[in-house]
């Protein structure tokens, strides 16, 4: 790992497993949210993050804000957008950090090499070149001015509610416990989602 990276970024890299442009964007988005809200990380549920993609950048949210799936203060919306909304319950404030177009745009030459690498057709030279483009992009993201990288807006809507703990019922088909709000009925018996038979009319 490169020593020139700040300690918090190194922590995110350790958590994620590698450095990549996606993690760099997530890192910058988290740093932006921290600066605007005057926050650090969540011990409990005082911070809540709503993310709109499941890409590499989300691991910066989990590693640095301690907004994690397991703690229930990471909400995932499958929009395929690099948008990070962070709420501080204590401060009663929220910030929406949305990536602007640009950081991931490729020149036609870069696009051609990217396609080759993705299809496994790249020569050694092209693979090296691809690595250099990636490094360049990472550097650009890490050095970029926050308003160049992101559209930053205050959020006035309240944060999502806190995670709740529910009673469990036992699925009568597989015998495994399932939390009540996720239980289904099959043949008049309580069951879990995987054991339930879905019925839909294609809507
Ligand atoms: Zn990655
Ligand atoms: Zn079951």
Features:
binds zinc ion, alpha+beta, Wheat Germ Agglutinin (Isolectin 2), domain 1, 203 residues, two-stranded antiparallel ribbon
Describe this protein's structure.
The protein has 203 residues and is an alpha+beta fold. The chain folds into 2 domains: 7-155, 60s Ribosomal Protein L30, Chain: A (2-Layer Sandwich); 165-203, Wheat Germ Agglutinin (Isolectin 2), domain 1 (2-Layer Sandwich), CATH 3.30.60. Helices cover 34% and strands 19% of the residues. It contains 6 helices and 9 strands; from the N terminus they run H-H-E-H-E-E-E-H-H-H-E-E-E-E-E. The strands form 3 sheets. The chain has a 5-stranded mixed sheet with strand order 2-1-3-4-5. Strands 6-7 form a two-stranded antiparallel ribbon. It has a two-stranded antiparallel sheet with strand order 8-9. A hairpin with a 6-residue loop joins strand 6 (168-170) and strand 7. It starts with 6 loop residues before the first helix and ends in a 12-residue tail after the last strand.
